[in-house]
Amino acid sequence: MDDVLVERVLRAVEAVPRGHVVSYGDVAALVGIGPRQVGSIMKLYGSNVTWWRVTNASGDLPVNLLDEARERWAGEGILLKPNGRGCRITEYRADPEVLGRAYAAAVADLEAPPSA
Q: pTM here?
């Protein structure tokens, strides 16, 4: 996997503000890749970033991550959905414009992604 691409995804995740979440698709749109690629990168390399701030489009996380995520969300003021599988992403989703600016600043020192 391309190291710069991995770094771009990880920096996008780190740009998500405390108390907010984004979907894999939101990160993918920032970086210019697909949501499944984001998920793969997060699975392999995401343990040292704020991974609990990235959910699926419904605000849910994989079952094996929920216990730790619940604690982290509670510390950030993110409430669980009644089913306990995730959060209400519509309530906690990061503002895309603010996130886009933070991401652009975070990756300014990286080489430009290849043109499509």
A: 0.92
